[in-house]
Amino acid sequence: MNIDQVLDTLQDKALAQVKAEFAARLKEALRDDDPFVAQCAEQVQHALVLLHLGQVSRAEVDLLLHKQQLAARIEAHSASIERQARLRRLASGLLDMAVDVVVKAL
Amino acid sequence: MLVSVPWKCVPWRALRGRLLLLALGLCLSACALVGGYSARAHEQLTGLKAAHLKLIDDQTEGPRERAWQADRLDQAASALDLRFREAIEFANSLDDPLRRANLGLLRQVLAADLTYLRERPRWLREPEAQLLREGTSLAYERAIRGECVREGSACRAR
User: Fold this and answer.
1) Spatial distance between the Cα atoms of B65 and B101, rounded to a whole number of angstroms
2) Each residue of A26-44: b (16+ CB within 10 Å) or e?
3) Which of A70, A95, A98 sits opposite B139 (nearest CB)?
4) How far does A82 lie from chain B, in Å, by closest CA?
5) Which of A106, B10, B44, B137 has the fewest Cβ atoms within 10 Å of its own Cβ atom?
6) Residue B34 to residue A81, Cβ atoms within 8 A
7) Among the residues of chain A, which ranges form H helices?
8) Looking at this predicted complex, what is its ipTM?
């Protein structure tokens, strides 16, 4: 069963627009270049299928979403660490070059 | 006693070189908040992940026929809490706010799982355990990545 079949079971027309938007965003996230975004989307899709099949309840889906929010905050920290580490490597390399080349030329 | 120093004109070329060094030095000091890779911190994160996933597995239904026991969950939770305290103490000694913050968030993941498990005093069914494992693994993997992207890392960032 795929996500379209699960979402098709929502009959209320008032939900049609929300459903279409959600499906589009989920598909976009599944194809995202960022592995974290794609992994989150896969997990949400899997959870919704299990919910539809009655194998899990809303509580498990809510718990997963809560943990994804915490993971997103961790990911933001990790991205910041990566950026600073890269900047540090770059600055360190430039500083070494500056000491070797620029200072000697002064 | 005041000594008057005669004004000396510094050539632009020399000044430019000094300014460049100053800018690079400032840039390096701005990055000083994030420390390098720590094998011990990495080992603590992978160990915490394994122990957390084992806790979920141990709460999942299987071939055993014994009844669910709250005190077994409490014992496992207490052992894991001790490992978190040790990791946080170590992170405090390295004085890296982002490493400390990530451990705090992982502890919140554990707290959320424990609240969920205590509210349902029974073995988890496999699909429920699967969802618990997915969300938990995701959070730990991101934190492990945060260690692996540091300077001097011995592991591969995923």
Assistant:
1) 41
2) beebbeeeeebbebbbebb
3) A70
4) 5
5) B10
6) yes
7) 3-8, 16-30, 35-52, 58-97, 103-105
8) 0.80
